[in-house]
Amino acid sequence: MHGVAASGEHNGAVRYVAITAVGPAGDQGLDPDREVREIRVRGALLPGLVNVHCHSPMTLFRGSAENLSLDRWLNDVLWPREAHLTADDVYWGMTLAAAELLCFGVTTTCEAYFFEDAVADAVLDAGSRAVVTPGVLQLPGTGSGDDWWDVRTAQIIDFHARRHGDSGRIEVGFAPHAPYTVPLPVLADIAEAARRLDALFHIHLAETEEECTRFAAEHGDSAPAVLARAGVFDGRVLAAHSIWLSDEDMAVYRRHDVAVAHCPQSNAKLASGVAPLVELLARGIRVGLGTDGPASNNDLDLWEEIRLAAMLARIRQRDATVLPAAAALDLATRGAGLALGRPDLGVLAVGAKADMIAVRLDDPAFVPLLEDAQLIEHLVWSASSRLVTDVWVGGRQVVEAGRCLTVDLDEARRQVEARAHRLMQVGV
Amino acid sequence: MHGVAASGEHNGAVRYVAITAVGPAGDQGLDPDREVREIRVRGALLPGLVNVHCHSPMTLFRGSAENLSLDRWLNDVLWPREAHLTADDVYWGMTLAAAELLCFGVTTTCEAYFFEDAVADAVLDAGSRAVVTPGVLQLPGTGSGDDWWDVRTAQIIDFHARRHGDSGRIEVGFAPHAPYTVPLPVLADIAEAARRLDALFHIHLAETEEECTRFAAEHGDSAPAVLARAGVFDGRVLAAHSIWLSDEDMAVYRRHDVAVAHCPQSNAKLASGVAPLVELLARGIRVGLGTDGPASNNDLDLWEEIRLAAMLARIRQRDATVLPAAAALDLATRGAGLALGRPDLGVLAVGAKADMIAVRLDDPAFVPLLEDAQLIEHLVWSASSRLVTDVWVGGRQVVEAGRCLTVDLDEARRQVEARAHRLMQVGV
């Protein structure tokens, strides 16, 4: 049972990119006509975890704005400092995060941030995989006027042309921040641009009750209803947070196949609330888990989100039978891939990306193991990221025995430390 | 800043039991007339964590009764199986748990379980420390009648006489299960016995709303009110869970100085609810964190409870400013010691037990570190048990570089695995 093997298909310079066979050791029925490599692990082999909502370069701001509501956290601390970021800051913030993510077994993240080339460069250099959705948001000091939005949208269209599909590991989308920070006509324009490119439209939605109350007062209806009417939901949409949704809002999501990035830890830490996970899943709405950025979580450990999602769902529903372990794990693997519109992520299946993680089983977390099905219970309820030993992305090993092979972690820590100190000096 | 040193006082066969000096390296002002040993660590030196509510030997039942409410979990699965436990089962269940706890940096647990000699033996053999509070509960098949309760109480009084203070690492108390499983006169008798011995009276209280509703219907008042009137709260009382408390109940706790064992993860997983942590602390009620047993949590990682306590408090209060990191960490260290009536636990201070843990700081979790105070934020919000490298109990090193020196982990895993399979065969 514990000897699972997978093989990956060779593809020129990028080796072993896809899984061609999965099964117990010796049973793969490898095709002798293809160049394949067999990976054998001690322990359990799982698909790489998929983190569907993240601002990874915010490692630069980790723990620097604590005990604040979302509103104050953004306006008083984060945005004034982010206005002083450089591309190199973002490269190093993303690099440190990528190492952290890979060590936790997270092989894909959906990133919403600025300096998107630096994000993509860092992801590729770290050997990781990302959906890079450049942020659209007027930070303090970043110009203004209607023209700014068009320029920024054009930048992202150009970025898509240059980097979409880069090295087989970068997908490009769009991330206008939120309905309360980006004007509705701009959202509609960006949605149209994304639709033309079949690109992901990634937005923060219904994160705080105050934001929803204010939006409804100004627009006469909820943000989901208004956005749907404006055509914003006609493409591939991923709505992060989605806490304060009415039944009608959820019906809108379902009708437009809007997917949700559920971020339980960020939402709890910032006291934003608990999203209606069970109701979303019951309606067939696609949901994946996100850590959110390391300034609001403050780590990038998706294992914690899996367990927390199950716990908060049980508290919210007052029912200990909801979100069984397999359903919770799905939110960080197969379900997360589907939330991104990527059935090739988060699964160990023929044709899927060869993104895999090995988990040690020689730990008290897995004792006792009375039946095979209990492995999933243990993975969710007693294991943790600390048991991830080895990680492969596109068939390339990037973590071995818990050590990231692709990032000089000491250098990344030094770079982020120094840059964070500089950004801290910015008058706020 | 990161070079902290402590020294421990020598005490015959049990070496270096208490801390005699704390300070930056070189600053300890060691007393040359005492035999002391200096401990130097790379990273941060913290007090050993204190887990105030646990049923550690239930590693035997880890993950074997999932997705059930507390009521069904106890009656349908756990209690019928526990009736078939042997002392050796409990010894090995506790041994595996002790190794797990020590590796997570938990140096003291308050244990409520049966076969108390086996529990104490395992704790001592593992080099750990515990408040052993033998359980009082009529499991299916364990005799009945009024006489049974008296016999059991006498057993615990005898256990106290034999083992209290054993090796300087065992404290003995009493753990009648709950007001809905132990008759009120029996609770009063046990409380009186505990008071005579100045021993801890440890009980499950107000864990589910259903239990509270039923108790109030039968007794005409809440369990805290009824127990207080019966004199049950006149000694040293630790009330585990304490979720469904009215303002009057909290006033009763305050008046009688009842301490609370807050178990957020168990309470969330079993959908029992969220305890009023902020209200309890605001009233000056002593609160410590507990993992609860590994059949309901399912791990023994107190670090997770620290973070979850802060998150759930923020959700419950809808306020991101409550439970700042230092307050959350206190619940697993100094505050947990005080909840047990043990100011010598959970602190690095002269005279305290030399129970200490070293935490690696060369991890992304601690980047950036803009000011010293941020270390506490990072410990709570981005670090985890995986960064605990070394652990000392009573000055004796029990974990080194993440490896438990005192328990043969392979043997403990084999023993628990085999015994769990046997118990699983019990007809339920």
Average pLDDT reading of chain A: 92
Output the number of helix runs of chain A: 15
Number of domains of chain A: 2
Largest interface by Cβ-Cβ < 8 Å: A-B, 66 and 66 residues
Per the CATH scheme, the topology name of the largest domain in chain A is TIM Barrel
| Shape by Cα distribution of chain A | globular
- Helical content of chain A, roughly? 25-40%
Side by side, the strands of the main sheet of chain A go: 4-14-15-16-17
Name the CATH superfamily assignment of the largest domain in chain A: Metal-dependent hydrolases
Quick tags:
38% helix; five-stranded parallel β-sheet; five-stranded antiparallel β-sheet; TIM Barrel; 428 residues; alpha/beta
Descriptive report:
2 copies of one chain form a homodimer. Chain A is of the alpha/beta class and 428 residues long. Chain A folds into 2 domains: 9-45 and 356-399, no CATH class; 49-339, TIM Barrel (Alpha-Beta Barrel), CATH 3.20.20.140. In chain A, 38% of the residues lie in helices and 21% in strands. The first copy, chain A, contains 15 helices and 17 strands. Chain A has a 5-stranded antiparallel beta sheet with strand order 4-14-15-16-17, covered by helices on one side. In chain A, strands 5, 6, 7, 8 and 9 form a 5-stranded parallel beta sheet that branches. The model of chain A is unreliable at 1-5 (pLDDT under 50).
